[in-house]
Sequence to fold (344 residues):
Amino acid sequence: MFNPFIALIVGLTIVALLTLVFLRGKPFYNRLARSKTLSERIFIEDALKHLYDRNSHNTTASIDSVSGSLNISRNHAAQLLAQLERLKLIQTQNQNFQLTPAGTAYALRIIRIHRLWELYFANKTGFTEHEWHTRAEEIEHFTSKEEAELLASQMGNPAYDPHGAPIPTSEGKLPPKAGISLADLEMDSAARITNIEDEPDSVFTELIQAGLHPGMQVAVINRTPETVTLSANKQNIQITPIAAANVNVVPLVTEEECHDFENKLTDLKIGESGVVIHLSPACRGLQRKRLMDLGLIPGTEVEAAMNSAAGNPVAYNIRGALIALRSEQADYIHIRKMEKNDVS
Fold:
C-alpha cells in the first residue's frame, strides 16, 4: 500500500543526498570532503572496491594496483593496505591482497550503493552515461545503509544497474551475471548484450562512442589481433579486443530469439507505418519519459507522415497527432514494419 509519509521521507532523503552532488566544488563540499575522518573512510571504501574487483576477476591486487586505481603514492597505498589488514578487512596470500569475509561484505555494501545511484541517475535525471558513474562515485560515501534501502525501495528493489551489472542485495548476495564475454563469442553467432563494464573509463568511452548498450543484438563478423568487427543495427562496428572483453553477452540460439527487431522508426519512408515493439534500453530518464508521454509505447501504430525541408526532423502520425521527431530520437524507437493490408 502507498504510504505518503514513507514517500515523503524517501524524497527528502534523496534531495539531501543529491544536494551534495550539486555542491561539488563549493567551499562547504570541499571542507567536508577534506575532513580527515571522511577522507580516510573514502580511501578505505575505494580500496575495498578495487580489491573486490581484482579478487572477483582472479587478478592480483597489489600495492601498485591500489596506487594506480586510487591515484595515490605507493607509500600511501602501502599504509592504506596495512590499515585494512589491522581492521581485519584484508589478508595477504602470496603477495596478493585478499578480502576477508568482513571486507567482502563492506565492499558489496558500497558497490550496492554505487549501482543504485547509477540507476537512479540513469532513470530520473538528464545526466549522461559518463556522469552516472562519476556522480555515483561522489555520493556513495555519504549514503548510509538505511538511506540506500530507501532509495532501493523507491525504485522497486532493482536487480541490475543501467550497465547490466548485478546490484548486490541488502544481504550482500549478488544476482547471477548472465552470459559470456563478447571476446569469446563464436564468429557469426548472434547474441544480446547484457552488461557493459564502466571501468576503465577509456574503454567505457570507446564502447559508448561505438553505440553499444545493454539489450542490443550483435554478431561478431570478423576478428583480428587489432579489432573486433560487429554487426549491429544494420551496420558494422569496430572495437578493440580489450573493449570486447568488457562486454558480456548472452548467445541467441533459437530462431525466435534471433528475430531481429532492429527496424527503427527512422527506417520508415513517408507513407509507411509500423508498430512500436520497444524503446531502446539506451533511451533513459527524461528522454524516455517524454517519448512514452507522446504515446510511443509497445503496440502503438506510427506512420511517417511528412519530411521537413532539411529531412530532419520528420513528422509522424502518432494516435492522430502529428509529432516531429529528430532522427536521434526516432532511432530509439524499435518497430515492426506494417504491410499495407495490415494498416488499420
